[in-house]
């Protein structure tokens, strides 16, 4: 895969059906989990699959938690 990535950012959102989804920015990785602990494990597994060579894997994985709230005043 060419040049290694120092940091990989995932946008994490609550899924409408429950649980969480995570989408990487700049890389085609999408995963989900029933809770945040499972989601973290799924992200690590997905990153390892996407970057089979350990030397090319990002050293840091950042989760950007997005919470969408809608309410009427």
UniProtKB/TrEMBL annotation:
InterPro entries assigned to the protein according to its UniProt record, in alphabetical order: TTHA1013/TTHA0281-like
Protein name (Swiss-Prot/TrEMBL): 2-oxoisovalerate dehydrogenase, E1 component beta subunit
Species this protein is from: Candidatus Berkelbacteria bacterium Licking1014_7
